[in-house]
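thread: overnight batch results

M.L. [08:02]
morning all. the overnight job finished for the chain we discussed friday. pasting input first so we're all looking at the same thing
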Amino acid sequence: MKRLLSSLFLMLVLVSFAVLTSAKPNAYHSIEGTWELESFYNYDDGENVSDTLAKEAGYRQVKMYYNGKIMWSRYVPKEPNGRFGYGSYKITDDQLIETLEYGDAEMMKAMDTMRVFTFDLVLKDNSYSQINIDEEGNRTFSENYRRID
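M.L. [08:03]
and the structure it wrote out:
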């Protein structure tokens, strides 16, 4: 009996050690969190960045992603009422798909013709780019964000 308990204890120690020292998989990049727009890229040939544009002075756009939901807000000095939208999102390895459900008056008008926005996605730990694609599959421009939470 003593021998059996000793063997079980030794096995428990070895299994615990193996679990604690096993290699952990790399953490998946997550878009969950709060992000602020930093810049824009233009693409001239559908693949390569031709121009980087900084935000206009006073312009601010923030996006929040959490639990499958997105909320964004934009302030443009020349538009005193601001802009906002709310909806759901999903990501794949290389795409961001946003489905808007509600927004400011201008957004609600735009949603009559388009509610689902699909972007190419380049996601890193503390930055991401959502890249617009034209009807031929070429990149046209991107919004580039940095994590602020």
